[in-house]
């Protein structure tokens, strides 16, 4: 927990010597509490105070960053239990697990690394790879690295891990996983290779015990594997850890890793992990349809509840429209815009797409909130000077707001107002039939 | 070193609501379904056991829907032509209860016929939804409510525009209403106040906070549900109702579930994608407090029932 100005004041020399640039230690303490000053400005703080202040300033859940030659994945630094309280910040990294012994390793990595999917104009990919050391880990890491530079999780024991760590030295991988039997050896490896270290145990007590011992050996970046055999067990443990961490219980103040472990249950285990606090999710299956669904879920859960994802209002050209092409109208909510733009683009038919400023709301939401009415639409049409682009003034409304057509005819008397289909999926057929 | 696990102790609890009436209770259902009763956030059994886990309803239509995904048409086959057959098949697929959704083409007579057919084909508790147009809903639901008197069915969708008629008929015929407000804590509360002001007791109201599909506004519903449940546990009486979510309706409207061709290759296998769309939307909403999940595909039903079984202590 961040300290108050008074609490910080108690840790300062209280001599009011002014060397920090402030008239009193208390004034300086207040600035520190407000994060408007740096502690280093006071030359006289004791080492003990420095340590206490640093600890109190640390986020309740440590930020752990895995790095590869291409890309990094951050987890931690979260500040709330429910996304509406603020927002969730660092999207859990999705990793695909591979076996070092797999004869088709290179091909599998190639496939997964090539995966790219777009949602509301954002491109998503697999964040990294976990390699199970059931064969020569060093060779496997080299194989993976010949294809992709994304961050790695190396899963093995003190005997098998060094070869893999050596093969990616200079990066920041994660070592999986320290337990009561091997933690000393793995902590040494993590320290030597500057890797993050996953920690697992039979209970939270045991995990907390281990993180403290490992921290005492100088390893700071840890990640917790909570076990949990059922969905219910895992949800309980993950919630308990998040709550304890937010109450500043340091031994569990680390991101969590969830192993979804294949099979029929995998999609739902991964979905729960994304919604309920995982920082890293490891999938056994590379499946485009599953990745797409999970990546969208992650985007939804991690969207700032205060700010809908929006696109810039304006006139968008799709498939090189000409003066004969129709004008379609929609709102500037990203989901809405891309639903329409993707359909029209996919159809190959040219159109002008006018995106009205509806404060980032969907068609019906904006209509119900009075942000997408005839007046606003007319204002956009005039404001973007759409009339100058076309010879035939045909304007297509979303089917859901058919009720606006009468009023819009009054607002835009020289335009022909048409009512399109309700769903964007039906736009291509509509454009072929009605607008051809 | 034993850690002290923080436990929330809430002053409030969720109301229990029972759907369906057995012969002993004046109906003909072979079982009833009770939801609600929680005194902690979803599945926090270490704080307080939850007496009633979430349940799964299967949505069937009074008439073969022409706009449903071919994947659904394929799995339900001919059963889609007759509500009675469809109901029996849905029961086989593991539904805990049924939702019969009426269409704009229904008349009061056809709606009553479909309701009766479903009630005789399956002993499961039933919820009947109107087509979602205020006047039509009132016309159809009043007829259905009278015909199903004593069965304690759910009547929906009860909104600010039509709650009077639906609540009145629920009162007269011993039914439950599902109250829908558009993703807003205060609007839900307001509607529940209006409904209880008419004299319907809280144990006969389900709350539908409105749901969006994965990728189509799901996160708004997710957070509104968390907020409603937190308010309920804090003791706000008018939010203490079990929540019903129409996941199947929303998820199968999404292009991801509906369309198999002309979509990006990165979307992968159509059928599995469609099932993921429905189940992952459902899973997220289970985590945020859903009590009744209305689904459409039998495979989704099996997966979600298995997930619920794993979420409650053995
Ligand atoms: C998510 C959501 C919200 C979110 C807002 C999300 C956002 N940024 O817009 C929140 C929770 C904030 C919200 C608030 C409200 N909402 Co709202 N909301 C929804 C919900 C669940 C989904 C909307 C959505 O995102 N759809 C997905 C997008 C892609 O759909 P779309 O924009 O319509 O686009 C599709 C089509 O229209 C078409 N299309 C789009 N453009 C074009 C263009 C052309 C030319 C064509 C042909 C087609 C086309 O293609 C798209 C894909 O098919 C719907 C219910 C539902 N399940 O649909 C209610 C809904 C839209 N909301 C509703 C209401 C009433 C409200 C509120 C007024 C409630 C209130 N009083 O607080 C507020 C208004 C906001 C405010 N005052 O600030 C009502 C509207 C009722 C009505 N028919 O009038 C709905 C329908 C819920 C309901 N059943 O009552 N809402
Ligand atoms: S420099 Fe340090 S001791 Fe001097 S006034 Fe500032 S805070 Fe106090």
Q: Would you give an account of this structure?
A:
The complex is a heterodimer of chains A (436) and B (314). Chain A has 16 helices and 17 strands. By secondary structure, chain A is an alpha/beta fold. Chain A folds into three domains: 5-57, Electron transport complex subunit B, putative Fe-S cluster (3-methyladenine DNA Glycosylase II, Chain A, domain 3), CATH 1.10.15; 64-301, Dihydropteroate synthase-like (TIM Barrel); 314-433, Rossmann fold (3-Layer(aba) Sandwich), CATH 3.40.50. In chain A, strands 3-6-7-8-9-10-11-12 form an eight-stranded parallel β-barrel, surrounded by six helices. In chain A, strands 13-15-14-16-17 form a five-stranded mixed sheet, with helices on both faces. Chain A is globular. Chain B has a single domain, classed as TIM Barrel (Alpha-Beta Barrel). Chain B has helices at residues 70-76, 83-92, 108-121, 134-147, 163-173, 185-197, 218-233, 247-251, 255-258, 270-287, 298-311, and strands at 17-19, 33-35, 55-61, 97-101, 126-129, 154-158, 176-180, 205-208, 244-245, 292-295. In chain B, α3 packs across α4 (134-147), α4 (134-147) packs parallel to α5 (163-173) and α10 (270-287) packs parallel to α11. The mean pLDDT of chain B is 96. At the A-B interface, β4, α8, α9, α10 and α11 of A face α7, α9, α10 and α11 of B. The structure holds cobalamin and iron/sulfur cluster (SF4).
CATH homologous superfamily assignment of chain B: Dihydropteroate synthase-like
Structure ligands = cobalamin, iron/sulfur cluster
Strand content of chain B: 5-15%
Could you give me the name of the CATH homologous superfamily of the largest domain in chain A? Dihydropteroate synthase-like
Oligomer: heterodimer
Shape descriptor of chain A: globular
Secondary structure tally: strands of chain B: 10
> So how many helices of chain B?
11
Rounded Rg of chain B: 19 Å
CATH topology call of chain B:
TIM Barrel
Could you name the CATH topology of the largest domain in chain A? TIM Barrel
- From the helix content, strand content and strand pairing of chain B, which structural class follows? alpha/beta
């Amino acid at each position: 927990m961040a300290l108050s100005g008074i609490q910080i004041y108690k840790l300062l020399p209280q001599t009011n010597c002014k060397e920090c640039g402030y008239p009193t230690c208390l004034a300086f303490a207040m600035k520190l509490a407000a994060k408007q000053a740096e502690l280093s400005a006071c030359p006289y703080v004791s080492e003990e105070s420095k340590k206490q202040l640093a600890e109190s300033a640390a986020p309740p859940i440590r930020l752990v960053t895995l790095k590869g030659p291409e890309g990094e994945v951050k987890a931690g630094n979260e500040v709330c239990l429910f996304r509406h309280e603020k927002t969730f910040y660092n999207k859990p990294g999705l990793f695909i697990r591979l076996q070092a012994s797999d004869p088709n390793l290179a091909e599998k990595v190639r496939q997964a690394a090539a995966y790219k999917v777009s949602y509301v104009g954002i491109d998503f990919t697999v964040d990294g790879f976990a390699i199970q050391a059931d064969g020569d880990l060093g060779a496997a890491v080299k194989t993976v690295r010949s294809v992709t530079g994304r961050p790695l999780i190396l899963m093995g024991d003190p005997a098998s891990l060094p070869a893999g760590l050596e093969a990616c030295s200079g990066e920041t991988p994660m070592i999986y996983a320290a337990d009561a039997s091997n933690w000393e050896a793995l902590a040494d490896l993590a320290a030597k290779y500057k890797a993050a270290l996953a920690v697992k145990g039979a209970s939270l007590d045991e995990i907390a015990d281990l993180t403290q011992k490992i921290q005492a050996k100088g390893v700071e970046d840890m990640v917790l594997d909570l076990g949990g055999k059922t969905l219910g067990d895992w949800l309980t443990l993950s919630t308990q850890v998040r709550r304890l961490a937010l109450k500043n219980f340091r031994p569990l103040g680390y991101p969590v890793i969830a192993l979804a472990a294949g099979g029929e249950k995998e999609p739902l285990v991964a979905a729960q992990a994304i919604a309920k606090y995982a920082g890293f999710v490891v999938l056994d299956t590379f499946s485009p349809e599953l990745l797409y669904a999970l990546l969208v879920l992650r985007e939804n859960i991690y969207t700032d509840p205060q700010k809908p994802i929006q696109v810039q209002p304006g006139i968008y050209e799709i498939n090189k429209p000409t003066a004969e092409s129709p004008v379609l109208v929609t709102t500037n909510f990203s989901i809405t815009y891309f639903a329409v733009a993707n359909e029209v683009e996919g159809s190959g038919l040219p159109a002008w797409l006018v995106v009205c400023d509806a404060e980032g709301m969907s068609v019906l939401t904006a209509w119900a909130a009075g942000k997408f009415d005839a007046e606003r639409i007319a204002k956009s049409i005039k404001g973007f000077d759409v009339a100058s682009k076309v010879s035939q003034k045909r304007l297509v409304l979303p089917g859901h707001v058919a009720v606006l057509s009468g009023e819009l005819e009054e607002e835009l008397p020289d335009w022909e107002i048409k009512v399109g289909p309700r769903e964007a999926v039906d736009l291509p057929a509509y454009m072929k039939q009605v607008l051809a | 070193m034993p850690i002290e696990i923080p436990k929330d102790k809430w002053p409030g609890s969720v109301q229990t609501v029972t759907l369906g009436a057995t012969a002993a209770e004046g109906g003909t259902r072979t079982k009833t379904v009770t939801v609600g009763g929680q005194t902690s956030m979803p599945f926090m059994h270490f704080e307080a056991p939850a007496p009633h886990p979430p349940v799964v309803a299967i949505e069937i239509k009074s008439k073969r829907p022409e706009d449903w995904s071919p994947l659904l048409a394929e799995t339900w086959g001919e059963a889609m032509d007759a509500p009675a057959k469809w109901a029996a098949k849905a029961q086989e697929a593991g539904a805990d209860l049924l939702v019969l959704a009426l269409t704009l083409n229904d008349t009061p007579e056809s709606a009553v016929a479909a309701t009766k057919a479903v009630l005789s084909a399956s002993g499961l508790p039933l919820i009947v939804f109107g087509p979602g147009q205020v006047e039509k809903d009132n016309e159809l639901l009043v007829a259905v409510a009278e015909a199903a008197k004593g069965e304690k069915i759910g009547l929906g969708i009860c909104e600010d525009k039509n709650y009077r008629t639906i609540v009145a008929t629920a009162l007269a015929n011993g039914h439950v209403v599902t109250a829908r407000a558009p993703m807003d804590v205060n609007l839900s509360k307001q509607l529940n106040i209006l409904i209880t002001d008419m004299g319907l007791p809280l144990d006969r109201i389900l709350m539908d906070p409105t749901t969006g599909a994965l990728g189509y506004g799901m996160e708004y519903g997710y957070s509104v549900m968390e907020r409603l449940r937190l308010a309920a546990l804090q003791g706000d009486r008018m939010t203490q109702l079990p929540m019903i979510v129409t996941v199947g309706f929303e998820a199968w409207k999404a292009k991801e579930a509906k369309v198999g061709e002309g979509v990006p290759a990165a979307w992968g296998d159509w059928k599995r994608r469609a099932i993921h769309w429905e189940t992952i939307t459902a899973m997220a909403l289970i985590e945020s407090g859903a009590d009744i999940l209305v689904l459409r595909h039998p495979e989704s039903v099996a997966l979600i029932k298995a997930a619920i079984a794993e979420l409650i202590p053995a």
